[in-house]
TrEMBL record:
PANTHER family: CARBOXYPHOSPHONOENOLPYRUVATE PHOSPHONOMUTASE-LIKE PROTEIN (AFU_ORTHOLOGUE AFUA_5G07230), PHOSPHOENOLPYRUVATE CARBOXYLASE
CDD domains: ICL_PEPM (cd00377)
Source species, domain of life: Bacteria
An example Gene Ontology molecular-function term: lyase activity
Pfam families, per database record: PEP_mutase
Keywords on record: Lyase
UniProt name for this protein: 2-Methylisocitrate lyase, PEP mutase family
InterPro entries found in the cross-reference section: ICL/PEPM, Pyrv/PenolPyrv_kinase-like_dom, Pyrv_kinase-like_dom_sf
Amino acid sequence: MTLTDRAAALRALHRPGDPLILPNAWDPGSAKAVARAGFPAVATSSGAVAESLGHADGEATPVDAMLDAVARIVAAVDVPVTADIERGYGLGPAELAERLLATGAVGCNIEDSDPRTGALVDPAEQVALLAALRSAAGAGLVVNARVDVFLHATADHGELLDAAVDRARRYLAAGADCVYPIVLGDPTLIGRFVEAVDAPVNVLARRDVPGPAELAGLGVARISYGSGVYAAARARAARMLTAVRDGRDPFTA
C-alpha cells in the first residue's frame, strides 16, 4: 500500500457518527499494542512522546528526535499513523510536509496556539500555514487542525463557541480534513460545534467528557485519548514500584 493509499484509508475512517477511536501511542511497543487491540490506525501524542524521550511537551523536543520517534512508530505497525506535531517545531510548511511524509506518517495534528506560551495565533496566519501545508503535501497527509480557543480559556466555553466555529470553518476551507476543538467537553456545545462546521470533528476523551457512544450520537468523527493512556501506564508503573520498595506484591498493587 502506498502512502497515498494509506492517507486515503485514514481519511475514510473519519465518519461522523461512527468515529475513529485513537488511543494515542508514544513508542513502537505502545503502537503495536494499539494495532493488536484492533484499532485501524495509530496516533501519536506529542506530550507522551516528548516525556518518553526525556523532554517536556511544548516543542521542547528537538525536531529530529520527534520525527525519528514517529518513524520508529510507523515502522512498527501495518496501519496508518498520524503524528501529533504540535506547531511544526519551527519548520516551514513545505519542509514539515516533506520530512513528515519521509517518516511514513500519513496524518498530522497541527495547533493554532503557540506551544510555548499558549497564545492563540491569528486565524489568518493559521489559514496560511494550513493552505501551504496542504499544497506541499497534496492528498498525502490527513490534516487534523486543532482549534485551541478553549484550551487556556477563562471564559465560559459557550461564549467562545462562535469564535471556535469561525476558526474551524476557515481551517477546513484552507484544506484541513478534520477540526479538533481540544478540551471542549460539554455535550450540548459539542453537538452545536459539529452541526455548525458540518465536517469531521475530533474530540479529546477525558474524565467527565461523554463516552464514545454518546459522542457518536453527537456526530463526532474522531476521538483521541491524548496522553491519557501514557499517563495511566506511568501511574500503574509507579504503584508497582512503590509496592516493590515496600516489600508488597507489585502485581496486586
